[in-house]
C-alpha cells in the first residue's frame, strides 16, 4: 500500500502490525490513538499518513471533532471510516477519542548532526524593545546554551519511555537517546508522551557501548544517576558543555560497565528508607537541576 491508499481491512491490518517493534521497523510507521494525538500530530507537521475513525466520530456535531475533520481534509490526510465496535477493539476500550492514525517515522538524525547544527548557530543579541520609547544599548552576544540530551537505557515499560519523552521535551532537551529495548514509538509510549514524540528528535542506539562511543566522539559529557555514592545533585557543578543525562533500567538502574564509563555520577538526596525515585521522576529532577544551573549561570 502506497500513496495513502488503504482499504479499511488494509489499514486495520497495518495498525495491528505496527504494534510490534518489528512491524514498525519494516513498515516505517507507528500508530497513534485519540483526538489529542491526531490534533498534535497535525499541528507539529508530523507525517500523518492515514487515519481510521469510527462512524460516531464522523457523524458527531461536536465542534472539536468537526474542526479536526476539517484539519485532516486540509492536510490531505484520508479518513477511513469503520464501525465503532472495530475502533473500540483496536483501542481496547480506551476513551481517548474513536480515531487512530499512522505516522511515518521522521528522517533519521545523528548526534553529530545535532551538535554541529547547534554549534553553527550565531550568537544572539537584544538590540531593541518594542515596549520602550527608545532603543536600549545592544547587549553582548549571548551564545546558545550547551545542549541537553536525555538518555533512556533499556527502559522496559513503554509508559516510562513515553514519560521520558515528555520530560525531555519539557526540559528543552535536543533529543531523546533511546538505547537497547527503550521504545518511545510503542503505542503506549506515544499516548503517554502527549504529543512530545512529534516535537523531539529520537536517536536510537542498539547498545550502551555504541552510545558511549558516540557521546565521546561528539564531545557530549555523560552524567548518570546512582542511588548512592555520586556527587549530591544540589552541589554538582555542571560542565559548560553538551550533556547527556543517562537513565537506566527501572529495576537495575545503569549497568556497572556504563556507570564506570560515566564522566560524572550524581545522587539525588532522598528520605531515609527509600532506595530510589521512579525513573521518570529522577530524570525530571536531574534535567530541571541542569537547566536551572544554565539559567542562573552556575555552570
Can you tell me about this structure?
The chain folds into two domains: 8-104, 60s Ribosomal Protein L30, Chain: A, CATH 3.30.1330.30; 148-295, Alpha/beta knot (3-Layer(aba) Sandwich). The chain is 38% helix and 18% strand. The chain is built from twelve helices and eleven strands. The chain has a seven-stranded parallel beta sheet, sandwiched between helices. A four-stranded mixed beta sheet has the order 1-4-2-3, sandwiched between helices. Mean pLDDT is 89; it is low at 120-134.
Q: What string gives the helices and strands in order?
A: HHEHEHHEHEHEHEHEHEEEHEH
Q: How many strand elements?
A: 11
Shape: elongated
**The CATH topology of the largest domain is what?**
Alpha/beta knot
CATH homologous superfamily caption of the largest domain: SPOUT methyltransferase, trefoil knot domain
The first-to-last residue Cα distance is 52 Å
The largest sheet is: 7 strands, parallel
Into how many domains do the coordinates divide?
2
Question: What radius of gyration results from the CA coordinates?
Answer: 22 Å
**Alpha-beta classification:** alpha/beta
Proportion of residues in helical segments: 25-40%
Instruction: State the name of the first-level CATH class of the largest domain.
Output: Alpha Beta
Amino acid at each position: 500500500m502506497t500513496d495513502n491508499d488503504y482499504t479499511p481491512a488494509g489499514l486495520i491490518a497495518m495498525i495491528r502490525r505496527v504494534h510490534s517493534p518489528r512491524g514498525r521497523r519494516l513498515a516505517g510507521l507507528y500508530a497513534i490513538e485519540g483526538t489529542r494525538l491526531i490534533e498534535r500530530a497535525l499541528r507539529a507537521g508530523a507525517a500523518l499518513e492515514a487515519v481510521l475513525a469510527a462512524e460516531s466520530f464522523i457523524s458527531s456535531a461536536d465542534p472539536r471533532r468537526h474542526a479536526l475533520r476539517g484539519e485532516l481534509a486540509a492536510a490531505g490526510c484520508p479518513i477511513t471510516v469503520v464501525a465503532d465496535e472495530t475502533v473500540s477493539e483496536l483501542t481496547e476500550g480506551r476513551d481517548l477519542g474513536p480515531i487512530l492514525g499512522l505516522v511515518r517515522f521522521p528522517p533519521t538524525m545523528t548526534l553529530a548532526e545535532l551538535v554541529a547544527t547547534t554549534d553553527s548557530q550565531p550568537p544572539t543579541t537584544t538590540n531593541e524593545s518594542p515596549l520602550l520609547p527608545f532603543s536600549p544599548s545592544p547587549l553582548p552576544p549571548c551564545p546558545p546554551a550547551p545542549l541537553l540530551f536525555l538518555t533512556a537505557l533499556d527502559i522496559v515499560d513503554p509508559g516510562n519511555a513515553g514519560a521520558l519523552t515528555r520530560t525531555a521535551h519539557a526540559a528543552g532537551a535536543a533529543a531523546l537517546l533511546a538505547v537497547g529495548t527503550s521504545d518511545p514509538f510503542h503505542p503506549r509510549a506515544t499516548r503517554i508522551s502527549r504529543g512530545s514524540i512529534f516535537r523531539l528528535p529520537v536517536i536510537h542506539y542498539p547498545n550502551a557501548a555504541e552510545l558511549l562511543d558516540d557521546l565521546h566522539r561528539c564531545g557530549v559529557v555523560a552524567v548518570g544517576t546512582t542511588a548512592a555514592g555520586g556527587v549530591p545533585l544540589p552541589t554538582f557543578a555542571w560542565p559548560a558543555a553538551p550533556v547527556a543525562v543517562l537513565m537506566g533500567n527501572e529495576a537495575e538502574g545503569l549497568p556497572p560497565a556504563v556507570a564506570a564509563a560515566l564522566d560524572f555520577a550524581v545522587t539525588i538526596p532522598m528520605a531515609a528508607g527509600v532506595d530510589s525515585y521512579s525513573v521518570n521522576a529522577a530524570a525530571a529532577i536531574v534535567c530541571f537541576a541542569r537547566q536551572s544551573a544554565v539559567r542562573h549561570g552556575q555552570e
